[in-house]
Amino acid sequence: MMASALVTTGGRLYANRTQLAWSDYCCTAGLGFAVTETSLMFFQLRIARHAWNIPVCWLLGDTVKLRFGRSLITIMATLMAKTSIFLLLHQIFTLERGMIIAIRIGLAATCAVAMVSFASQCWNDIPRAGETWDDVALKFDRIIVWSPATSIMYLLLDLYMFLLPLPVVARLSWPTKKRLKALAVFSTGFL
């Protein structure tokens, strides 16, 4: 998966090398965060098994700090990837006033979800006064509420991004075959 992201981003940067836009910079930053998170994940390969088979002592100490760092980096990677897509849509659909407003709403929603997620992660995973990192590791109930909520919000944003360009492309005065091809290109986001 990482290889395809590297090839796709590299191709995008090569194609736009003479006139890079903000979407290209966000895409590159998102890739950088994703590569960093993947690299940190390799430090935790020994606990890559079912939670029932992990000794509690493996979840304490530096593992808690590493998990916290990975979660913040994942939030930033997700923010940059979604921002990149919204900025790319903004570049493509600059003539449609309603589309620009819809894209800006999606961009604001993406930033809001990322900021709330970042704040929640810090609130739940940083030890409070008198606690240690080991105490935080044993309190999994702190993240149980926010994790599903964040996942649902990101899923809704993905659906929003997927559906956003389809009505504009469907209204184009192109031949049906050409419109279907354009719809197929934008529909790849559904995969």
UniProtKB/TrEMBL annotation:
Q: Tell me which GO cellular component terms the UniProt record holds.
A: membrane
- Segments crossing the lipid bilayer: 68-89, 101-123, 143-170
Membrane topology, as annotated: Multi-pass membrane protein
Q: Taking every annotated instance into account, which residue ranges of this chain make up the domain Rhodopsin?
A: 16-190
Q: Where in the cell is it found?
A: Membrane
Query: Which keywords does the record carry?
Result: Membrane, Transmembrane, Transmembrane helix
Pfam families per record: Fung_rhodopsin
Similarity field: Belongs to the SAT4 family.
Q: What is the protein's name according to its record?
A: Rhodopsin domain-containing protein
**Organism of provenance:** Chaetomium fimeti
Q: What is the lineage of its organism?
A: Eukaryota, Fungi, Dikarya, Ascomycota, Pezizomycotina
